[in-house]
Specification:
Blueprint: H1 2-15, E1 19-23, H2 28-37, E2 42-44, H3 49-61, E3 65-71, H4 74-78, H5 80-88, E4 94-99, H6 117-122, E5 128-130, H7 135-146, E6 152-156, E7 177-180, E8 185-189, H8 194-206, E9 211-215, E10 218-220, H9 224-233, E11 237-244, H10 249-260, E12 267-272, H11 283-289, H12 294-306
Parallel strand pairs: 1-2, 1-3, 3-4, 4-6, 5-6, 8-9, 8-11, 11-12
Antiparallel strand pairs: 5-10, 7-9
Helix pairs in contact: 1-7, 3-5, 8-12, 9-10
């Protein structure tokens, strides 16, 4: 997904000389071609993310279209004051690109996990928050964000959901992507953990339970109609995210349901508990250890239906 972003950014830099990439002293192998081709559109700010962010804001106010680039927790948590006061307050045209969302850097431990970023970024006024589920989505959403003005947070994952683009399909900021149809339950997922949603839906389908799946790649602005449609038309909702359950996708979906007066048959969240993860390992291993896998999603839906949540079959399903 990271490579897909860099490929698209290189195309944007060729089209618009105002595009500039600022890195926090990482990504050399990945960024080499970009640097060689656009040396005047690249800045290495060093291991100084606060400075990187303030430089980005200043350049944006001078007319540049700026992208900052670092491992997910560093351009967000380490320099939150600069993101808030310099970028968001001044509505600067800066896209904060975070590589390694969730447990992508699992072997490096808690300091390199990004499991609170969605909640924090979506709380900032003027900020758009995007977490692609597929490589091709990352390309589409990078271009879509470039057509818009103002601050954005682009959370890139090392993994990908695993679904190829279907004919005519396109990802658009603020519009959820319907991945599958089904009426018994809806799985709303953000980021590359979509892979687990697809696996859960496959297992449930073999048991006669059909799940709608929504790729909620944009957390802010949120596609509220997709959520309300799921509440009206399917048996219940399960949210899935590689993030703390507080304030992220679950919070955004729950807020929409409550403020709209919607009443899904059931509502469940599959997310990291309100803890600091203490285990290290690769992304797949950590998902399993912390209950963010297909089995957990499958069990959440099966148990909800077993307790009497209604099945809302579509007319076409007979």
């Amino acid at each position: 997904m990271r490579d897909a972003f860099i490929e698209t950014l290189t195309e944007l830099a060729a089209e618009d000389p105002r595009v500039v990439l600022i890195t926090g002293d990482l990504g050399y192998g990945v960024l080499t071609k970009f640097v060689e081709r656009f040396p005047n559109q690249f800045v290495n700010a060093g291991v100084a993310e606060q400075n990187m962010t303030s430089i980005a804001a200043g350049m944006a106010l001078a007319g540049w279209r700026v992208y900052t680039y670092s491992i997910a927790n560093f351009p967000t948590l380490r320099c939150l004051e600069q993101v808030r006061n310099d970028i968001c307050y001044h509505d600067c045209d800066v896209t904060i690109v975070a590589v390694g969302g969730g447990f992508s850097y699992g072997q490096l431990g808690m300091s390199h996990f990004a499991t609170e970023d969605l909640a924090i970024m979506r709380a900032l006024p003027n900020m758009r928050v995007v977490a692609p589920t597929e490589k091709w989505e990352a390309q589409d959403l990078t271009r879509d964000l470039a057509r818009q003005k103002g601050p954005a947070y682009l959370r890139i994952d090392k993994d990908a959901g695993g679904m190829a683009r279907r004919e005519g399909e396109r990802a658009t900021v603020g519009k959820a992507r319907r991945v599958r149809e089904g009426a018994d339950a809806t799985i709303i997922a953000t980021g590359a953990i979509m892979r687990e949603a697809l696996a859960a839906a496959d297992s449930l389908s073999a048991r006669g339970v059909q799940c709608r799946i929504e790729a909620m790649h944009t957390i802010k602005p949120l596609d509220e109609e997709a959520i309300l449609s799921a509440a009206r038309e399917t048996g219940g909702i399960v949210t899935l995210e590689e993030h703390n359950r507080v304030g992220g996708l679950m919070g955004a979906v729950a807020e929409t349901l409550v403020t709209s007066g919607a009443r899904p048959g059931f509502f469940r969240s599959v997310a990291l508990g309100d803890v600091f993860p203490s285990i290290v390992g690769d992304q797949s291993y950590l998902r399993g250890r912390y209950g963010l896998d297909a089995m957990t999603v499958q069990d959440a839906i099966a148990s909800a239906l077993a307790t009497g949540a209604p099945l809302k079959r579509m007319a076409s399903s007979g």
